[in-house]
Amino acid sequence: MENEISVKVHQVYYGILGAQLQKQAAEQDKVYERARLSEAQQGMRDGSALNVDVLDGQAGLLQSEQSLLTIDLRVSDLNAELNDLLGLPLNTRLVLSPAQVNTPVDLSRGEMLQVAFDTNPDIAICDGIGRAGQSGRHIGEI
Predict the structure, then answer these.
(1) Any domain includes 94
(2) What's the average model confidence in pLDDT over 102-129?
(3) pTM
(4) What confidence score (pLDDT) does residue 2 get?
(5) Do residues 24 and 71 touch, judged by C-beta distance below 8 A?
(6) Quick check: 16 and 82 in contact, CB under 8 A?
(7) Is 80 exceeded by the pLDDT of residue 78?
(8) Same domain, residue pair 6 and 65
(9) What percent of the chain has pLDDT over 90?
(10) Which residue range(s) make up the domain with 41?
(11) Which of 2, 61, 72, 96 is in the most buried spot, having the most CB atoms within 10 Å?
């Protein structure tokens, strides 16, 4: 049960981080659509654009606003779900930051493999099974 909750917390956490990135992209799209609408309106005043261009710009702006609202709702739902999983009041505002993964760049492949073997016993077990299989194959060839 505890593992299931932990997995669900991780899923929701990364879902929130992903939705926040989508929100940033939608905000940038809204800025672009607003500028496109403004250019179309200016072009119509100058006589170099048609009313259809203005309508297209308005439709694009409305669509980007709709996308932004949808993402806001998803972030809100995910925040409430995370609060529920953590036992916090549902309206608690959490400030999430991406998980920091420390990967030592200056290690050689051999050093990284040694760190992996030292920190994860499952890798060592699998490596032992693989070596036993190779030994059996080598004996069969002799």
Answers:
(1) no
(2) 71
(3) 0.63
(4) 79
(5) no
(6) yes
(7) yes
(8) yes
(9) 56
(10) 2-86
(11) 61
